[in-house]
Design brief:
Belongs to the arginase family. With 228 residues, this protein is α/β, with parallel strands linked by helices. The protein has one domain: Arginase, Chain A. Helix content is 34%, strand content 16%. It is built from seven helices and six strands. A six-stranded parallel beta sheet has the order 1-6-5-2-3-4, with helices on both faces. β3, α5 and β4 form a beta-alpha-beta unit. The chain starts with 12 loop residues before the first helix and ends with a helix.
């Protein structure tokens, strides 16, 4: 396991974030070119930009399978909070390319080559976009080879996709979700295609309140990363 912690330049927010994502992309690309399937662990869905850029630098044209309790398809114009993590998938698909995609040399993944899994907590603007132009949406139980895009796949899993009653302490917890067993089973079906070129895991949680909560989190994360 390597920690990606590059020196960050002076400048604005996106200059600094892009420096981090560029380092992630370089490490991921090197792993892929060596025949590996890198696992990228972070606390933020935006780091997926580095995973996508890395796959493209390795000569691949990936689609993306995005497990999340939220849509992550806001733009700066549609978001009422300005929270950048809520724009993550939309940035991967080409929104605001000047922020990170262009500096990284990342080509957007078309909505037709993206799959959004669960996304049970949507703002009205996100629901409108997904109904009109967004990627295909599926429940965790429906995920399998028949619904996946062709070609190489990046598998993105935000652990808040697991029901908040089971996996507590997330920054934006959402009840009424699937169990960790259901999420892991669906992720395993994606991985079983043999087409996953990177596993990108976001773990956006607060410090555990007690040892039991920490153990539950570690168990789910360990089982997920062990799938590769």
């Amino acid at each position: 396991m390597r920690t990606i912690d590059p020196p960050l330049p002076e400048g604005g927010l996106w200059q600094r974030l892009t420096a981090l994502y560029d380092a992630v992309a370089a490490a991921a690309a090197a792993d892929m070119e060596a025949g590996g399937v890198p696992t990228v662990l972070s606390g933020d869905c935006l780091v997926s930009l580095g995973a996508v850029a890395g796959a493209q630098r390795a000569g691949l044209d990936p689609a993306i399978v995005w497990f999340d309790a939220h849509g992550d398809v806001h733009t700066a114009e549609s978001s009422t909070s300005g929270y950048l993590g809520g724009m993550s998938l939309r940035l991967v698909m080409g929104a605001h390319p000047e922020w990170a995609a262009q500096p990284l040399g990342m080509r957007p993944i078309p909505a037709q080559r993206a799959v959004l899994v669960d996304a049970r907590d949507l703002d009205p603007a996100e629901a409108d976009y997904l109904a009109a132009d967004g990627p295909a949406r599926y429940g965790v139980e429906d995920v399998g080879p028949a619904v996946l895009p062709d070609g190489p796949l990046i598998l993105h899993v935000d652990l808040d996709v697991v029901d908040a009653g089971e996996l507590s302490g997330m920054i934006f917890p959402v009840p009424g979700g699937p169990s960790s067993d259901a999420v892991l089973g669906a992720a395993q079906r994606v991985l079983a295609t043999g087409r996953v070129v990177a596993l990108d895991v976001a773990c956006p949680w607060y410090p555990a309140r007690d040892a039991s909560e920490a153990d539950r989190r570690a168990a789910v994360l360990g089982r997920l990363t062990a799938l590769t």
